[in-house]
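G., the chain you wanted modeled:
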Amino acid sequence: MGLAVSACNSDDDSSAAQESPAASASESAPASSEPSSAAPAAESADAAAGDATAPGTKLKVGDKAVLPFRYTAEKKGTVAVTVTAIDKGTEADMSAFGAKAKGMTPYFIKMKVENVGGTDLSYASLKLDGVLEGGGPTGVLLIGEVPGKCDRETAPAEFTTKGASYETCSLSATKTGPVTGASFDEGDAYRTSPVVWAR
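Predicted structure as tokens:
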């Protein structure tokens, strides 16, 4: 899997340096979500009609949020996300990301994702963003994982029925204060008022 790290407020907004066949690092302007082929999230019909967690809701680690989710035009539905832990790593865990990750402390946002709507969401992936103490963003955008500590899983082939679930991890990092929460900000309603889990 390719690995990349982007630090906001950098003078170099488009450069990329190959660190190894499996890792790369680049700096770019701020971004609110990871670049991918996934389409922006939008409210699904079943979530809009019922029990979706309201934008701006504040939760604790261990709480469940029911969220509209759209991965592609064909893959959309409703998922329940439970953040199970936000674990602090060490700078050494960032070694695969190369020199541009120097001085960054990683945090591992672990979660359980459940298919609530019963639609086909096989092979979809969901990412949460780290939140600093006080509610601000980390200023760092990461793509990748730390094997054995934060494994970024996609939904299995069987993630097509109501009640199906899997566990995954989103990697966050900071050069400033600690990451104390995680946020979901996909879709128009949540982009300005994300759902936030706090430790």
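The radius of gyration is 16 Å.

Shout if anything looks off.
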